[in-house]
Amino acid sequence: MNQSSPHRNAIRLLLAAAVLAIVMPASAQEEITGIVEPVSARDHVRGPRTAPVKLIEFGDTECPLCKRLHPTMKRLVDDYRGQVAWVFRHFPIAEIHPKAPKEAEATECAAELGGEVKFWAYLDRLYEITPSGNRLDPVELPRIAQYIGLERAPFEQCLASGRHTARVAADVVDGFAAGAPGTPYTVIVAPSGKAYEVVGNQPYETLRLVIDIALTQK
Amino acid sequence: MNPMDAFRQNPVRIVIEAGREVLGRPAYLLLAGAIALIVLAATLWLPNYRLLGAVFSTPGVALATKLQLLAGLAGGLASNFGVVAAVAVVIVPVLFGVDVAMIVYFAKQRRARLARGEIAASLGGAASGAIAAGCAACGSFLLLPVLSFLGAAGALALLPLGGAELGLVSIVLLLLSIYLIARKIAVPPVCELPPGGPITRQPPARSTP
Prior knowledge:
The complex is a heterodimer. Chain A is of the alpha+beta class. Chain A is built from 7 helices and 5 strands. Chain A has helices spanning 4-32, 64-80, 100-129, 140-147, 152-161, 165-178, 204-216; strands spanning 44-46, 53-59, 84-90, 185-189, 195-199. In chain A, β4 and β5 (195-199) form a beta hairpin. In chain A, α3 (100-129) crosses α4 and α3 runs antiparallel to α5. The model of chain A is unreliable at 17-33 (pLDDT under 50). By secondary structure, chain B is an all-alpha fold. Chain B is 67% helix and 0% strand. Chain B has helices spanning 3-9, 11-23, 26-45, 49-56, 63-74, 76-80, 83-110, 116-133, 143-149, 165-186. In chain B, α7 packs parallel to α10. The radius of gyration of chain B is 24 Å and the shape is elongated. Chains A and B meet through α1, α2, β5 and α7 of A and α3, α4, α5, α6 and α7 of B.
């Protein structure tokens, strides 16, 4: 019986994995740069629009990982003081979170009625109270609007009209075009335009590491 | 009951004995460990292979920073998974490594082929583990496409652990596969005697004249 054969197989497997780790990402990276729609006036931006680094997050308000990432993103914008801007784009995954598309529209209604400040206030409050996993009671949507200081009637009228459905759908199309495999999916865009895609709810320190690298790419 | 038979029918004993026989050999231990590490690394880093590619191809990034990023993404185990899913993410690669090592050992030592049931349990365990690993991001990797294909994506919202159940299914399937292969390894490679000893043929009765 030849005992060294499994040993050799193991080494072959390790080598194959190492080659994949080096070659695959390098070739994949070329595909993604420039695919995300550039930040424009239609975007919701937290932090200065002129910030050198943009964190473009594709989020689903019923995704538990997006809920956990939300305070991390707020902390990053605060800590980098003008160096980083956070852009939120909708990516509700209706297949697993059927309530998320309407919640995304609700944030747009907040923006329509109260501007950027109310959009972010609404999003913050929504993430704060949703148990996530498609478990937010829809009756909470107008209550959140009232909580952040919007009038209930126009908010409900906006939400019922469905006039922001197309806007949410456009963000989803952008996410798919960028290659979002799920949520949260964050594209960190360096001043040079180089994109760093982050999948999942990564820790604060990991995101800082990538932002610091992006800041050097001028 | 024969005490040896009772010993053999205890699934835990069977797995431990077979595990000792296989993993007691350094080559198979190395194989199991290498597979476990590769699967674990794939679970932690593959969802972010584009990020790794972008950082590794950025000029001027120190090696220490690259290693820090690898470690940081591994730390995503805590931030991306719930307790049940995180445990499954660690256990599934280990079980898969042991399972493959035992299958290779059996195939080489006995020069025998496995039954479909054993292969199905092993592949099922690995596949459900890979799907469960998709929970690193909502709807990502294999999870959503597979469930959508099965028409069961909506059912995910109804699961109490939000899909982490798949990790548990994976653990059960891999344990089943390991048990099935261990049972084969534990059986000595001889044709066993039937209970009660060999069947002796009665000599033909002599016909009396």
